[in-house]
Amino acid sequence: MSLTFxxxxxxxxxxxxxxxxxxxxxxxxxxxxxxxxxTHQPEFLKLNPNGVVPMIVHDGTPIWxxxxxxxxxxxxxxxxxxxxxxxxxxxxxxxxxIAWGNVTLGEAASRLAYTFSPDxxxxxxxxxxxxxxxxxxxxxxxxxxxxxxxxxxxxxxxDTHLHGFVTWLGMMQFDLKPFSQVTEWLKRxxxxxxxxxxxxxxxx
Length: 204
What we know:
Layout: E1 3-7, H1 13-23, E2 28-31, H2 42-47, E3 55-58, E4 61-64, H3 66-78, H4 89-114, H5 123-145, H6 157-171, H7 180-190, H8 193-203
Helix pairs in contact: 1-3, 1-6, 3-4, 4-5, 4-6, 5-7
């Protein structure tokens, strides 16, 4: 098996890094410098014409988009590791939350992140709008976690994936305290050895 992981620090590649860490998959790691334009070099664009990370190349096939990568790694490696459901309605639930993280939660989170740019127009208004939208989305997640330790009951890569987005919100000083189920879930996720090790690395 040949698996290569293309990543850049402090990017959405951290989602894939967490998934790989949970699965314990050996892989070649290629660190890219976004500011230096590494993802826009011809050799990278041949693999990913979008010019972004994360990306994995598994047995010669490039796979990009963090949600797709999480689901793919889950299907190939996660079922036997008890970290991803076998083909069933549970699989559908896992896919639902992974996609929700990227599309619904991630969209509002990206708008909030944009307001930190010194060139952002109407930053104050945009930040308040993004925070209001995030509150609505996190209420959905909060409700889904009620009475459960993790999204599917047992820990899965759906939790790994969403953990990255919610941690990102915390790093942007978004107040998570009103969402008690989410904050307790986040604490449980943070106790996972693989995630704890990654978070420790970020704090250094």
